[in-house]
Predict the 3D structure of the following.
Amino acid sequence: MTLTRREILGAGGGLVAAFSLSSAAAWGGEMVEIKMQGRDDGSHVWFDPIGILIKPGQTIRWTNLNPGNSHTTTAYNPANFDRPLRMPKAAKSWDSDYLLPDESFSVTFTEQGVYDYYCIPHEHAGMVGRIIVGEPKTHGWTELARADGDLPEEALKAFPAVEDIMAKGVVRRA
């Protein structure tokens, strides 16, 4: 079989397009990076991205890139300071403890569902994030993600919508 120049160029263009995908869900085994960031004066702190879609078995690594602050990545789970459950019941909870600048913490996600997390000292400032693992298949899959629980108003306002994460794959802060 002989390929024409047009077919070769078309295949190459498709390959380039595939490698330029920004959605972490496109690459099953790839480590996903979430940056912990903030303004130099400490007036604003955030996770970047704030919402992400991954496949079961993928690992997320949070890295504190904020030179003036310590941060945590802590799952909303009663095991962590009796916080409301905002993740799958069968999933393992996590708490990174305080990460100094340039320190990292990783979690591998195996259970499908919505996982909400926060930074302990900055939750009141809206430093929260949302991870979706897999695809919704049953009624009530996003139920916990819509529950208010006992969260600060700034945190509740900061969560990206499940539908936005599902549509875009990655949601950055506004």
